[in-house]
């Protein structure tokens, strides 16, 4: 009896040695934050358009403001007279570095960026499976500055029928267009009414 | 009647001489050794310490067989040595095993951590060096992956990238089956800020390290990093680490086995240290049991076993002292009985001579005086018999009685005994003697045996007494003496051979000395035989003597 107990103890002592040999698989282990890559072109000469990935996740697309193909510059011109001049000024940012901050709504660059978003993904983006959920738009989206801070997008399409992904696209694109920190609250309004104001982070989360 | 034997013994007469010359008991050489020659040339040559020799010799046979049994026993399966060795080995095994296991685990996680940390930080570094445009196109992504794939640290890796629906890798297969859905789900999780993750995966027995890195970018300096939608994976084989870890196991085993072997040495030393004193103690105890009371153990050291040895020695010394004391007292008592009978013998010899003369002249005396003289004469003879019997008994007690055997014809011997006592009347003593039985006997002692038994039967039983002699199965001489008396009462039977035992206490005086049957028994025992008393179913006592031929 006592010998059996001793034997058991010996086996128990040898168990970790026998059981734990070799390399075992593991769970997923988090190892710090994600690495930051440099995205071309430099922030000052690019605009960020948020499309959607194959699983509906927001996918930012960066376009050079100088060389980007604007499909709808003519359409925006009637609204903002100095459209071409603004396009040039957008190259140095929407007034952040200049010190004098123009009111959001008056930023013609934002309007142009939204127009580019509405135009949908281009060739390379199609290749990567990037899509948009925004509806075909009959007209441009107007941008207004809110008194309480943030901006209001007046879309020519029904806002309440927009999918969640489409809202993320609008909110994030607009937010990063007016402010590179992307923290401005955005209200999307359509002919059928307005959605509550939200930030890009909240909408994407 | 018993007078015939001791009285007729020539040695007894010789012996009276020297003893008579002795000035007194105080001047006499003490000890029965002085009396030894008294038994005559044939008897009592054994010295007193011979008694001490005889006892061990008798007990030697069983003792030897016992010792042989214990010595013959080999190493016991669960003896002290086995248990000690087992315990030592167990402790060593547990110690080695635990140490090896813990060391192994620590070393293994150190090796793996080292590899993982190096790989993760190297991969992150490679990704951080990326300079991309969004969206990514397959061609440029592939170029970058091929570049990263060449920078594998600490071991080569394969690199995979996922961007939208694009699947690009540094190998010819765009995706890897090693990457688990959990790892993918973790890096694609939108709820939390993106993190680098890694996972060890064992596929088909090969361990892999898989690292997943979601690439983020900054929208402004110091801003929140935003996901680019690009996720890079690195897959690294851990074969080399596995080999290193296996080397650890081998090292642990190679270290543990010699440790176990080395543990055997102290185990055996410890077992020896315990077993040797125990063995000594056992031998000493056995030796004591064989009567060697002077046995002592060499006790050294200060451990419990040495204490035990010392206690044993003290006990042995005490025992030896007590036993010596007892033996001395016993010897003194025996010597006293022997001395007394010796001292009585000389005056008795003189008295016997005088009473013989008086007996012859009794006829000329007046009747009262004649009766008194005859009475004195008879009692003196009895006294002489008693003294002779006492001396004989004390020789037995002193173990000074010796057997002087001779090849004799038993029937002749018995006939000689009967005729020597004038028991020739068949009405009185009827002898049925098997002829031609030859045995190695001490004729004098055999004579005493037969005479005592027949005399006893005549005295206490009734005639005719029958003496039968035959050989039982050719190996035992049987002498049977029966009478036609009332037999022996069953209560008395067990005591008939005791000294001075009186069957009827009221009958204080009897014709015999009260030592006759005791002397008979001692003589038979000296021949290595037995004597027993019983009752014949048809009536009468039967005494049977059996002596091996």
Features:
heterodimer, A: 205 residues, alpha+beta, four-stranded mixed β-sheet, two-stranded antiparallel ribbon, 34% helix, B: 549 residues, Beta-Lactamase, Heat Shock Protein 90, 3 domains, five-stranded antiparallel β-sheet, five-stranded mixed β-sheet, 13 strands, disordered N terminus
Question: How would you describe this structure to a colleague?
Answer:
The complex is a heterodimer of chains A (205) and B (549). With 205 residues, chain A is α+β, with helices and mostly antiparallel strands. Chain A has one domain (38-204). Chain A has helices at 2-19, 73-79, 83-90, 108-119, 123-127, 164-178, 200-204, and strands at 29-33, 38-40, 46-52, 58-64, 142-145, 151-154, 186-190, 193-194. In chain A, a hairpin with a 2-residue loop joins β7 (186-190) and β8 (193-194). Residues 67-106 of chain A have low confidence and may be disordered. Chain B has 549 residues and is of the alpha+beta class. Chain B has 3 domains: 4-71 and 321-397, no CATH class; 86-246, Beta-Lactamase (2-Layer Sandwich); 406-548, Histidine kinase-like ATPase, C-terminal domain (Heat Shock Protein 90), CATH 3.30.565. Chain B has 12 helices and 13 strands. Chain B has helices at residues 4-8, 10-21, 49-72, 80-128, 138-149, 181-188, 239-289, 304-361, 367-397, 410-420, 443-460, 516-526; strands at residues 131-133, 157-163, 166-169, 195-203, 206-218, 225-237, 406-409, 429-433, 438-441, 465-472, 476-482, 530-535, 541-548. In chain B, a hairpin with a 3-residue loop joins β10 and β11. The two termini of chain B are 28 Å apart. Chains A and B meet through α1, β1, β2, β4 and α5 of A and α4, β1, α6, β4 and β5 of B.
